[in-house]
Design goal:
Helix content is 32%, strand content 30%. By secondary structure, the chain is an alpha+beta fold. Helix 3 runs parallel beside helix 4 and helix 6 packs across helix 7. The mean pLDDT is 87.
Length: 361
C-alpha cells in the first residue's frame, strides 16, 4: 500500500487542479514551469508543460512588469502576485491575477513554486470604467481656470494616484475678493466618486463663504458644519490669504500640512495653529495666523500625496520637499508645479494637488 501512496497523492492533486477554474501551474526553484493543469487549453495550448515558456502567454505591454515582479518575489523568496493580460485560445487578451507561493525545505531553500492564474477580466474592466468616471467627475469639480491677480501669478496641477483605480478627493482653488487673494488646498479622506463628490461640496462651500465676505476661519467653520450635517468627516484643508496690498498673509488650517514659503532664496514651512479636519465636529472654530509678506517670493500649497511615502517619517518627507523647492525656487509658477510633480508625484500612492502663487510680479 505504501508504494502506491505517492502515485495516489499525485493523481489526486492533479484531479483537484483540473477541477479548479484557474490555470494551475508549478515550477522548479529557478522558475521553469514543469506542470500545467488542463485549463491550459483555454489559452490555446494542448502540449505538455515541458518546453512551454509562459512569456508568450503574457501581453507584450505587461511582460516587463511581470518579469520584474517575478524576479523580485524569487529573489526575496516571497509570495508572487501580479495582474497582467494573458492570451486566450480565441486570440484575445484577458486580465488575470497571477499568484504563487514557494515550497521550502527545513533549511529555507526553495524546492518548488505553486501558482495560479485567475481570470479577473470583468472586475478589471469595471474598475477601469469606475476610474474613468471618477476622473471625469474629479476634473469637472476642479476650477476651469485660476483668477488673474495683479500681485501674483498662479499655477496648479492635479495628478491622479499611481495606484490603479484609485482617484481621491484632492482639490485646489483660488478666489479674489476685496480683501485679497484666497488660496485653498484640500483633501477628502477616501477614494472614488463619493470622495470626489464630497470634494466638490467642500470646495464650493468654502468659495461661497469667502465670496460672501466671510473670513477664511469662518469659511472653514461654515464648511465643517455643513459637511458634518451631511455625515462627511475628515476633510483636511488650508487657506492662505494674501492681502490686497501684499503686505501680509493669513493662514488657516483644518488638519492640513503647512504651506511652503520661499523667502529671499530660503525655504521654510509656515507655522500656524492647526484645527480639526472639516466635518469632524459640530461648531468647530478655526484660528488664523498672520505674518509679514514683504519678503515672500512664492507660496506652495500641496496635499499629502506629494510627500507621504510608506516607511518614511513625515518629517523626512517634508524635508525632502523643502530641499527640492529650495533647489528650483528660481522657476516660475507653472514650471515649479511641473517640476514638483516630476520629482515627487511619479511614485505617489495617493492623488496629488499642488497650488503655487508667485508673488514676485
Amino acid at each position: 500500500m505504501a508504494s502506491w501512496a505517492p502515485l495516489l497523492r499525485a493523481e489526486t492533486l492533479a484531479l483537484l487542479a483540473d477541477s479548479l477554474p484557474q490555470l494551475v501551474w508549478t515550477s522548479d526553484a529557478a522558475g521553469t514551469v514543469d506542470y500545467y493543469n488542463s485549463r491550459l487549453t483555454d489559452y490555446g495550448r494542448t502540449d505538455s508543460a515541458d518546453g512551454i515558456r509562459w512569456q508568450p502567454l503574457v501581453h507584450p505591454d505587461d511582460l516587463a512588469g511581470t518579469e520584474r515582479a517575478w524576479a523580485e518575489a524569487s529573489e526575496a523568496v516571497q509570495p508572487y502576485e501580479f495582474e497582467h493580460r494573458m492570451l486566450m485560445a480565441d486570440g484575445t487578451y484577458r486580465w488575470h491575477l497571477s499568484r504563487a507561493l514557494p515550497l521550502r525545505d527545513e533549511h529555507g531553500t526553495v524546492l518548488k513554486w505553486f501558482g495560479t492564474a485567475t481570470d479577473v477580466h470583468e472586475r478589471r474592466v469595471q474598475a477601469e470604467r469606475n476610474l474613468e468616471t471618477s476622473l471625469v467627475l474629479q476634473r469637472a469639480l476642479l476650477p476651469d481656470s485660476l483668477p488673474t491677480s495683479s500681485g501674483a501669478v498662479l499655477a496648479a496641477r492635479y495628478h491622479p494616484s499611481s495606484d490603479a483605480f484609485e482617484v481621491g478627493g484632492d482639490w485646489y482653488d483660488a478666489t479674489i475678493v476685496e480683501g485679497g487673494l484666497h488660496l485653498v488646498i484640500g483633501d477628502v479622506a477616501g477614494t472614488g466618486p463619493e470622495a470626489a463628490a464630497v470634494m466638490g461640496a467642500a470646495r464650493h462651500c468654502i468659495a461661497s463663504s469667502l465670496r460672501a465676505g466671510r473670513s477664511p476661519a469662518a469659511a472653514l467653520s461654515d464648511t465643517s458644519d455643513y459637511l458634518h450635517s451631511l455625515g462627511h468627516d475628515f476633510v483636511t484643508c488650508a487657506v492662505v490669504t494674501v492681502a490686497a496690498d501684499g503686505a501680509t498673509i493669513e493662514q488657516v488650517s483644518a488638519g492640513h500640512l503647512p504651506p511652503l514659503l520661499v523667502t529671499a532664496g530660503t525655504t521654510s514651512f509656515a507655522g500656524a495653529a492647526i484645527g480639526r479636519p472639516l466635518g469632524t465636529d459640530d461648531g468647530a472654530v478655526y484660528e488664523a495666523t498672520r505674518r509679514d509678506a514683504s519678503d515672500i517670493d512664492q507660496i506652495v500649497l500641496f496635499t499629502d500625496g506629494l510627500v507621504e511615502r510608506r516607511h518614511e517619517p513625515i518629517d523626512d518627507s517634508l524635508e525632502r520637499l523643502r530641499a527640492t523647492v529650495a533647489d528650483i525656487s528660481n522657476l516660475g509658477a507653472e514650471d515649479l508645479c511641473d517640476a514638483l510633480l516630476e520629482r515627487h508625484a511619479a511614485d505617489a500612492g495617493d492623488d496629488v494637488a499642488v497650488l503655487v502663487a508667485d508673488l514676485r510680479e
